[in-house]
TrEMBL record:
Domain of life: Bacteria
Matching InterPro entries: Bac_transglu_N, Papain-like_cys_pep_sf, Transglutaminase-like
Gene3D superfamilies: 3.10.620.30
Domain Transglutaminase-like residues, every copy: 160-224
Organism, scientific name: Sphingopyxis alaskensis (strain DSM 13593 / LMG 18877 / RB2256)
Protein name: Transglutaminase-like protein
Membrane-crossing segments per the record: none
PANTHER family reported for this sequence: BLR5614 PROTEIN-RELATED (PTHR33490), SLL1049 PROTEIN (PTHR33490:SF6)
Length: 267
């Protein structure tokens, strides 16, 4: 299957910006299940690309400087990816980061009382660790229904679990925190999902991966209740959302910003 992506990130500032720098993790790489990247482009209006490099997680990173005095910045990302059926299995660990790194908690994925209690509910009556991970995924979605607008990018796993709902980022963080607590390395994945009921979306997608002996990394999309398949494009990975965020930045000046994101993913 070949998927086409158009992803537009539009920042509008209420007064001219003196200086701003954006970090983009928007370029997918050839990985298991994701064999060919066709004509992937990042176009900038209101700024300029300064540098491209590969970070410690193997993610492609572009640094973009906003033009001095600009009142808006538009990042347009387009391209196509050839995908095959892979049922969420990524395989052996690769890269510069040692596997034990993915057992370390972060402020967004620390396992507090709520996550530990949730993990304890799983019990031990599962045929395998992978079956237990799927049971954990289902339990998280049962306890935290998908609901937009009640959390944000800085909401931790514990905070989300104590709330009334969350989005894919929250589901992934809770899963990661619980899996690390249970002794399995886990990481966050950001990317794109072709949805069956719509082409236009207002955000990218996020899910989790956990590592199992003799198999390697396996993906879990808690929000949708299954492992990623050929409708998913993996773009960036990290210890949590902050490591893998599609766009992050900083700016000088008192300007307030308005952010609009438009994503289209289609076959």
């Amino acid at each position: 299957m070949r998927l086409r992506v158009e992803h537009i990130t539009h920042y509008q500032y209420d007064s001219p910006v003196r200086y701003a720098l954006q970090q983009l993790k928007l370029t997918p790489k050839e990985r298991p299940g994701q064999q060919l990247i066709h004509d992937w482009r990042i176009e900038i209006e209101g700024g300029a690309q300064q540098l491209h490099y590969t970070d410690h997680h193997g993610n492609g990173v572009d640094l973009v400087a906003v033009d001095g005095g600009a009142s808006e910045l538009v990042v347009r990302c387009t391209g196509e990816v050839e995908l095959i059926t892979w049922d969420g299995v990524i395989g052996p660990h690769r890269g510069a980061m040692p596997l034990w790194t993915f057992l370390l908690p972060t402020p967004l994925t620390r396992a507090g009382r709520g996550v530990r209690s949730l993990s304890a509910e799983l019990g031990r009556d599962h045929a395998s660790d992978i079956e237990r991970a799927h049971a954990l995924s289902a339990l998280i979605l049962d306890r935290l229904p998908y609901r937009i607008g009640v959390t944000d990018a800085e909401t931790s796993a514990e905070q989300a679990l104590g709330g009334e709902g969350g989005v894919c980022q929250d589901h992934a963080h809770i899963f990661i925190a619980a899996m690390r607590h249970l002794g399995h390395p886990a990481r966050y994945v950001s990317g794109y999902l072709m949805m069956n009921d719509r082409t236009h979306q207002d955000a990218t997608h996020g899910w989790a991966e956990a590592h199992f002996d003799h198999i390697g990394w396996i993906g879990f999309d808690v929000s949708n209740g299954h492992s990623p398949d050929q409708r998913y494009i993996r773009v960036a990975t990290g210890l949590d959302y902050r490591d893998a965020a599609p766009v992050r930045g900083m700016r000088y000046g008192a300007a307030e910003e308005n952010l609009v994101v438009q994503v289209q993913v289609q076959q």
